[in-house]
Amino acid sequence: MTKAQKIDIKSLQIDELRAIAQPAYRGGQIADWLYKKRASAFEEMTDLPANLRADLAEKFSFGKIDIVRVLGSRDTTRKFLFRLNDGNLIESVLIPASPALYGSRSDRRTICVSTQVGCAYGCKFCASGLEGFSRNLAPNEIVDQLIAVERESGEKIDNVVFMGMGEPLANIDNVTRAIRIINAPWGLGIGARRITVSTSGLVPQIRQLADEPLQIRLAISLHGATDDVRDRIMPINKRYKIDMLMSACEYYASRKKQWLTFEYILIAGVNDSDEQAHLLAKHARRVSAKVNLIPYNTVAGLPWSRPTQDRQEQFLSILHGHDVAATLRREKGHDIDAACGQLRLQTQRELQAKTFARA
Question: Is residue 123 among the annotated active site residues?
């Protein structure tokens, strides 16, 4: 087995750790070293026998992700650019407390994590897919984002949102494995109700996630209340129309105790009309969903812009008029280009420019 083929030790569940480290209690010791003591190498696991440490090193990798850049904003939002072992770049964002963000307490810290390198779904307003799709992240590469940000920031993360680069449900197996590690008492110990998975609308995977036992939250990146609007800005809608998506949301809501959330990025002249607001309210009432309105975060090279403040407030007022629970995010990190994929895209283009200049 070559090093490239080795499974990373932080991709394993507790039963798998116990199976590889007999007697079984050694698996719990390994988990403590990984997630409580935050060891960075097998050699640090000093209460394990030397022969077991050597065996683990032979059979499993112990990867880490390197911080390339950290951008901090005036509102304390921080964006982290990571380099993976294969040289690919991904992003995470540490978001300060906001009462509008899933009811978070004033002292809560939320991390927005990536699940893929790039994105294949091509939402027209998003920077994540502008350089195309490379690959899925492994479970350990997802978990390592939390570990690295906590280490760098010195802050304890207690909310996780899968809303970074990539479509989480297109990588559902690795994402659910990572969630089990993040949620488990032997892992990072973050409650299921503090974990939110976002999707652009992969209907079969929404139903699959509904059948998972974890009581995690689901956020639908809706961004349009009619098929014509979603068709224009979200190619996934050509495969799964809004009515199919709402049916899957009803199924999810019937299986879980958590509210659904509709994420709705307000884009001037595209999806911010009164008509869209009234229809969005209809969808939200159908599945008892909350609505999180997000003013568009401008991306260099894309033609979209955010509505005026008055238009944002009018859209919110219409939702409230239909008795829909809705918030308008006073979004964090606008001064550091905190929208998905922007820092990665900027860095890649800077590297390409330097390479071209040397040629």
Answer: no
